[in-house]
């Protein structure tokens, strides 16, 4: 999207959740394969004149995070500190994708003015980075935005990770002729968001709305039971006999979805996610 808009783009990724085949072939795109938090990135900032940094890097396995504490904090906090430092030292704006996990057990829909109360190490890590960025703004005049998206989906998404992206996990299970596992009673509620509607509001943050926090995502929420049945129906349309089984409840927030009034008002954000159509597109791909 940024390349189409005439920007020059530098990508940094360790390819733990993506593939070189999906990188754009464009003279205005440069790619560096680095492991943030372990490999230095100062040379990239010294070599290129960078105006804005979009920080999307994380290992977003919320339910797994209590069992991978060191890995979680290394990937999601320590790695982020190197990016915050680079942005401060090179006078770059930092646009950080946090998570609605920072809200914890507040009653939904979550609004940006709520005091964060994360209930797991993933949410704690995201909130820690938010606080570090806010401190950087106070002491060093770092320009930033914090975005809190949730359950983002789309074609080309990695569906082979066992612990991330419930719909991707369900699709992979069906393709492998394995039952989808719904944890607990399946009445947990989440909203699922089509990635295509995020591009324009993200781009608007490059030039304005400095030091503001925005929720962004779909308004309609679904139970996990409903989502599993959609995947089951789509699988049946494609010739797969999908089954649903239930597992023990997990340590998770029961109901989690956001209010997007601020993004609608200030970024002209509009989400038209059609979950059934989106799941069918993903399954077909």
Which sequence of SSEs, written as H and E, runs from N to C? EEHEHEHEEHEEEHEEHEEHH
The chain-level structural class is alpha/beta
What is the number of E strands?
Answer: 13
Low-confidence stretches: none
User: How can the largest sheet be summarized?
Assistant: 4 strands, parallel
Q: Gap between N and C termini, in Å? A: 21 Å
CA-based gyration radius: 19 Å
In terms of DSSP E residues, the strand content is 15-25%
Number of helices: 8
- Mean model confidence by pLDDT: 96
SSE topology sketch:
Layout lengths: L8 E5 L15 E5 L8 H6 L4 E4 L13 H21 L3 E5 L23 H20 L3 E6 L2 E2 L12 H10 L4 E4 L5 E3 L1 E2 L4 H6 L7 E5 L4 E3 H14 L6 E4 L7 E2 L4 H7 L7 H10 L1
Parallel strand pairs: 1-2, 3-4, 4-5, 5-10, 6-9, 7-12, 8-13
Antiparallel strand pairs: 8-11
Helix pairs in contact: 2-3, 4-6, 6-8
Keywords:
285 residues; 4-stranded parallel beta sheet; single chain; alpha/beta; 8 helices; 3-stranded mixed beta sheet; globular
Describe what this molecule looks like in 3D.
The chain is of the alpha/beta class. Helix content is 33%, strand content 18%. It has eight helices and 13 strands. The strands form five sheets. The chain has a four-stranded parallel β-sheet. Helix 2 links the parallel strand 3 and strand 4. Helix 4 runs parallel beside helix 6. The chain is globular and about 55 Å long.
């Amino acid at each position: 999207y940024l390349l189409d808009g005439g920007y020059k783009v530098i990508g940094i990724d360790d390819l733990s959740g993506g593939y070189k085949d999906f990188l754009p072939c464009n003279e205005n795109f440069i790619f560096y394969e680095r492991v943030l938090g372990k490999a230095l990135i100062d040379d990239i900032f010294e070599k290129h004149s960078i105006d804005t940094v979009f920080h999307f890097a994380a290992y977003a396995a919320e339910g797994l995070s209590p069992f991978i504490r060191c890995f979680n904090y290394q990937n999601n906090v320590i790695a982020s500190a190197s990016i915050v430092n680079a942005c401060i030292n090179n006078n770059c704006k930092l646009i950080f994708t946090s998570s609605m996990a920072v809200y914890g057990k507040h009653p939904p829909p979550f609004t940006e003015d709520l005091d964060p109360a994360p209930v797991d190490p993933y949410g704690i890590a995201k909130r820690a980075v938010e606080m570090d960025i806010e401190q950087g703004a106070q002491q060093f005049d770092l320009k930033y935005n914090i975005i809190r998206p949730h359950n983002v989906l789309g074609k080309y998404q990695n569906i082979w990770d066992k612990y991330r992206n419930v719909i991707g996990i369900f699709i992979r299970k069906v393709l492998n002729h394995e039952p989808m596992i719904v944890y607990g009673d399946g009445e947990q509620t989440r909203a699922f968001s089509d990635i295509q509607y995020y591009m324009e509001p993200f781009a608007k943050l490059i030039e304005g709305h400095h030091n503001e926090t925005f929720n962004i995502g779909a308004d309609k929420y679904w139970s996990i039971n409903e989502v599993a049945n959609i995947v089951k129906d789509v699988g049946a349309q494609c010739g797969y006999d999908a089954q649903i089984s239930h597992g023990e409840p997990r340590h998770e927030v029961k109901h989690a979805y956001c209010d997007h009034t601020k993004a609608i008002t200030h970024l002209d954000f509009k989400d038209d996610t059609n979950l059934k159509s989106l799941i069918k597109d993903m399954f077909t791909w």
